[in-house]
Amino acid sequence: MPTLKLHRVTALPSQLEANSIYLVSIPNKPDFMEIYATGNTADVVKRVLTEQDVQAMIDASLSGFNTIQIVNNITERDSLNPNRAIFVLVLDASGDPTVDSGSASYVYNPSTGQWVKIAEYESLDIVLSWDNIQGKPTSSPAEIDDAVAKRHTHANMTQLNKIGEDANGYLLYNNQYPLTGWATSDW
Question: Cα(79)–Cα(73) distance, rounded to whole angstroms?
Fold first, then answer.
């Protein structure tokens, strides 16, 4: 069985020894080190992943992800056939029955194979609650409905607007005291 040598160094030597482990300090990161190991010959070298390796793997994995895909219509969105979650802006989303006109944003859910609308730029499918309306009347919806049910019109509005009263509360019609139909009597 070969003897394993351990080397603590500040830089990896250009000539390595077989059956050795090199612990290399990183000058600009004093709390970290890189680890290299040689096999039965010095030209077989393995190492532990470095911070740069991990970042490169993350970058490579994310390189296929666009932050957003833009397509012209729902047909183009449906032809994407994604195998992962993606975010898509559809410029003319009127092919979606919930969109009257304009654009909409969707996220593809790979676990269900469905597109989920997350925003609509013509209008959103909003359900309002009376309690959440700002600047609403102080009357309740029931009081407003009751007032609407009791509304009416008058065919003789011109005549009704002529009715009034004097300072003593006596009835006036067109600013005159009303005349009765029997202004005079023979008996």
Answer: 10
DSSP 8-state assignment for residue 2:
P
CA angle 135, 137, 140 (to 5 degrees): 130
Going by the DSSP 8-state scheme, the letter that residue 170 receives in this structure is -
Q: pTM for the whole thing?
A: 0.38
Where do the H-state alpha helices sit in the chain? 51-62, 74-78, 141-150, 157-160
Predicted confidence (pLDDT) per residue in 2-31, tens digit: 789 999 999 999 999 999 999 999 888 888
- In this prediction, residue 130 has a pLDDT band, given cuts at 50, 70 and 90, of confident
Buried b / exposed e along 31-49 (16+ C-beta atoms within 10 A) = eeebebebeeeeeeeeeee
Confidence band of 101 (pLDDT split at 50, 70, 90) = confident
- Is the pLDDT at 151 greater than 90? The verdict is no
CB 37 within 8 A of CB 66: no
Strand partners, 71: 90
Rounded CA separation 93/103 (Å): 5
- Distance (Å, whole) CA 121 – CA 68: 16
- Looking at the DSSP bridge assignments, the partners of residue 21 are 6, 37
